[in-house]
Write a structure and sequence with these properties.
Strand content: 25-35%
Number of strands: 9
Structural class: alpha/beta
Mean pLDDT: 91
Helix content: 25-40%
Number of helices: 7
Length: 192
């Protein structure tokens, strides 16, 4: 899939929003990618997942033993990546603020993990999820995501393979431009 085709999928599903958004990272932006909307169609989600998997080098794909994603945002795309790779897909949750496995999910010691996210901006959630996999006994060998909002600057400590890179600006609380601050803020993400 080309970048234009991927963006067309986001636009067609009304997943590319404009306004004033407080991102899960704590930063503000005039653009928000509501990946749940682009993933609500199973065929489209499967197509995007297969395209993501193709971005990962073949030798690295061969090492992956299980797919892990952080709930909520990464859950659907993680499942679809697992299907595309013919691997189990499990997810991390943070009901008390720290990611961990629940629902009987577990990782074997040293098990090779592909982390799957929907959107990466600062990489905070990804780094937290990668650390949780380590605490659970697994080893994240790479991460893929639908969208990299970091403009290629994020460092996750593992190879990172986004399907699409976007450079929508985001701002710290004290850097929000006046024209954005004039718009009521919406917090659509999953982090409280």
């Amino acid at each position: 899939m080309t970048d234009d085709a991927i963006l067309a999928e986001f636009r067609a599903s009304e997943a590319l929003l404009e306004g004033h958004f407080l991102l899960s990272s704590g930063r503000h932006s005039a653009h928000y990618l509501q990946c749940a909307r682009v993933l609500m169609n199973a065929e489209r989600a499967g197509n995007l997942a297969r395209a993501m998997v193709q971005r990962i080098p073949r030798d690295l794909r061969a090492e992956v033993e299980v797919v892990v994603s952080p709930a909520m945002g990464g859950l659907i795309i993680g499942h679809e990546v697992g299907r595309a790779m013919e691997k189990d897909a499990i997810f991390l949750e943070r009901p008390e603020g720290t990611f961990h496995l629940r629902r009987g999910f577990r990782l074997e010691s040293g098990q090779k993990v592909l982390m799957v996210e929907d959107v990466v901006t600062t990489g905070l959630s990804s780094r937290e999820a990668i650390a949780a996999v380590g605490r659970e006994g697994g080893e994240v060998i790479a991460e893929c995501a639908l969208v990299d909002r970091s403009n290629g600057s994020v460092d996750l400590g593992v190879p990172f393979f986004p399907l699409l890179g976007l450079s929508f600006p985001s701002y710290a609380e004290d850097e929000v431009p006046d024209e954005l601050a004039a718009i009521p803020v919406t917090k659509p993400g999953s982090r409280k």
